[in-house]
Amino acid sequence: MANNEESRGLKSLFDWFANRRKSGSTSLERQEREIADGLWHKCSKCGVLAYTKDLKANQMVCVECGHHNRVDSDERIRQLIDHNTWKPLDEHLRPTDPLEFRDRKLYSDRLREMQEKIGLIDAVKTGLGQVNGLPIALGVMDFRFMGGSMGSVVGEKLTRMIEQATQRRYPVVIVCASGGARMQEGMLSLMQMAKISAALQRHRDARLLYIPVLTNPTTGGVTASFAMLGDIILAEPKATIGFAGRRVIEQTLREKLPENFQTAEDLLQHGFVDDIVPRTQLKNTLGRLIALHQPVLTTPHMVLWETMSLTSTAAE
């Protein structure tokens, strides 16, 4: 009798552990399902799990270690531009395949796949808007579209935006995120470097402000042209900024490069970047810089007052 009770108790104990194991596996599956559904985000630097809503509220910056996760062009525009002030420019421009280029697949097929997958026509969005009530022309590169590479459409859209800004006397801000020139367009891609730079020079001749914001990564032909032509150059923390890749440079020089080579902090130390601004502070920083560089508008009352002051001084 006692043995039967012991066996029943032992069996129930085994059942209890089995049920715990089942419920544990179920909760684990549920947790994995929730993570897969995008409810949680695991930081690639510190490994901390963060609720996606909280991460987005902090502009995709890890609250634990400050790691700046990559954001798309739409999210970047929402972060920087005042609500209901964004007016996109040249949305109709579409890339073509003038060289009929083919690597592992046709360039035209690659473009179509990118457009269908991401929902963008090309790797940049341009438009006019306001930052803290001040008008600007903004260009935002999107690394998801072929690594943010600079093709003919990217160059044309940025050039037209800069020309619009010069005509309206707006400051220009370009958020850079690119692997460089787009090899599938050959020389046509490289020509965009000169075209954008020429438009920026006309903008500067008009005594107007240009601020590039260098994000991770900013490399290649973009770094070699408009990314480094700003009146004030800002960068996000830990962003990779350079021309050639680290491995290529090490193989060429046959030397081991420092760990922080081609980081925003290294460039700041050597004078290539003016300031490193966390993403959560970027909008207010841009607002202050633009406000400081606003042209002084002389009203008729000010002219009259200055004339009277000069006249009275001359009479004395």
Q: Short description, anyone?
A:
By secondary structure, the protein is α/β, with parallel strands linked by helices. The protein is 46% helix and 14% strand.
Task: Indicate the topology.
Layout: H1 2-36, E1 40-42, E2 49-51, H2 52-57, H3 73-80, E3 87-88, H4 107-118, E4 124-131, E5 134-141, H5 152-168, E6 172-178, H6 186-205, E7 210-218, H7 220-223, E8 234-235, H8 246-253, H9 264-269, E9 275-276, H10 279-292, H11 300-315
Parallel strand pairs: 5-6, 6-7, 7-8, 8-9
Antiparallel strand pairs: 1-2, 3-4, 4-5
Provide structural commentary.
With 316 residues, the chain is α/β, with parallel strands linked by helices. It folds into two domains: 2-37; 71-300, 2-enoyl-CoA Hydratase, Chain A, domain 1, CATH 3.90.226.10. The protein is 46% helix and 14% strand. The chain has helices at 2-36, 52-57, 73-80, 107-118, 152-168, 186-205, 220-223, 246-253, 264-269, 279-292, 300-315; strands spanning 40-42, 49-51, 87-88, 124-131, 134-141, 172-178, 210-218, 234-235, 275-276. The chain has a seven-stranded mixed β-sheet, with helices on both faces. Helix 5 (152-168) packs parallel to helix 6. It is globular, with a radius of gyration of 27 Å. The N and C termini lie far apart (125 Å).
Comma- or semicolon-separated keywords:
11 helices, two-stranded antiparallel ribbon, alpha/beta, 9 strands, 316 residues, 46% helix, 2-enoyl-CoA Hydratase, Chain A, domain 1, disordered C terminus
